[in-house]
Write the structure tokens for this entry.
Amino acid sequence: MDLLAYTIIAGIMYGIFFGLVGLGLNIIFGVMRMINLAHGDFIMLGAFLAFWLFYLFGINPLLVIPIATTVFFLIGFPLYYAFVPRLSKSSDPEMLSFILFFGLSQVIEAVIILAFGNNQRSIPSTVFGTSSFSILGQSFPKAWLATTLVAFAAFIIIYWYFRHTRLGYATRAIMSNREEALISGIDIDRVSAIAFCLGLVFASVAGIFSYFMIGAAYPSMGPDLTTVSFAIIVLGSLGSPLGTVIGGLLYGVAVMFMQTYFSSWANILPYILLIVIMLLKPEGLFGKAARSA
Amino acid sequence: MSHSEDVLLRVDGLVKKFGELKALNGFSITVGKGKIVGLAGPNGSGKTTVINVISGIYKPDVGSIEFDGKSIYRLPSHKIVHRGINRTFQVPKPLAGLTVLQNISIAAIYGSQAGNKTETVKEALEIVGLEDAKDTLAANLTLAQQKLLGLARALATKPKMLLVDEIAAGLSSQELQWIADMLIHIHKSGISMIVVEHLMGFIDSLTSDVVVMNAGANLFRGSIEDASRNEEVIEVFLGR
């Protein structure tokens, strides 16, 4: 019974974190209708940024968040304007976007290996203190609590952005119908560039806290994380950022059950989930109603 | 019409290709300040493409487009909106997850350059008579209501010119009369229009000045009465 309770509670915390892992990919897909195949590599970049800031200056992962936000807005804007408007004008934007982002993924991985070597890095979870905290009699490391709270805050922020800011409404307008958004006077490239940057920022924040939830970071971790993220957003519904929360929770709980009861099978879980969802409910569990939200 | 200060929109020699297909092949049209021009033609003649190119949804390949004395050729859509051109869609495409009020507010906030936005939104709602439905989700509106919302959304950007694309399609004769009256009312407030319609009857209730196009090019310009006697016009419409 204790094992079951632990599995469920850990699964929920895990799931909230995995919602954050998928969030950025879904924001970018919702607005740009492109799958960022380099998504996992931006998670890795976030992880490496956190590692070096911690290793060199002893900066706490929580304080890396504002730094990562700045860095990835600075990277995201030129990256967007250099490639995406040109891509949108091409004859086959979807196919070419796959090639572009796949290439970007390879480049990021190669550059990081060249710069830092293909080694594993980690930040000890004791950075948040050695004491643990308990929920319903189960105890967990403090780092889990910090991660869960950060992921939760990310959802609140994105909800607030979509529902209570002008830019958020403009973003929803683009997600709902590009032509109607254009003719309402919205500068689609500007709003999409911001959404792209937000997508990278949320990916990097997931990376900062990945040490405590998935373990050591290494330069080639990106593609696997992209697959996991893709499974999560398909589960929760493509293009519905808030559906990602549900996708993440389901994935998190499922992973915990697999790791606890069938640990040798845990790694194929995202692939199994993807196949099952595609066969049974390809529009995602949240369906169409949530997509326009 | 020849005096350039009286011309609001001047489109000249427009070409738009989709692969090998020339959807527009040297199309030209001028619209005077405060005028309504009907644009008619058989299905596939390029009427909607004209609207899509003028409003910046499609980029033209060749030609020139001048609005209010300045070129808007190949400008991005949102900038064309800011210059004072807006449109409706043949198949309405409201932002389904947002309410009527939110749909119109977005257009007022992002599309119009000056003025009291709250007042603008209220006016637009009043003109189309959607005040009672303002908190309804756009997805739950009837087709006629969605067309009205499209019109209100366009008006909220404070346009000088409105491009109305086959607004009559799929409406009952009663709704048609109602929409025609509304467009006349909007026109009286000083907004010029191009009204695209497959059928001459609806255009006739708004203006006598009509352009007929076929295969992406001009076929006729003049009064509806003359159009109905023109051999070539009769030929493309009846397909002799």
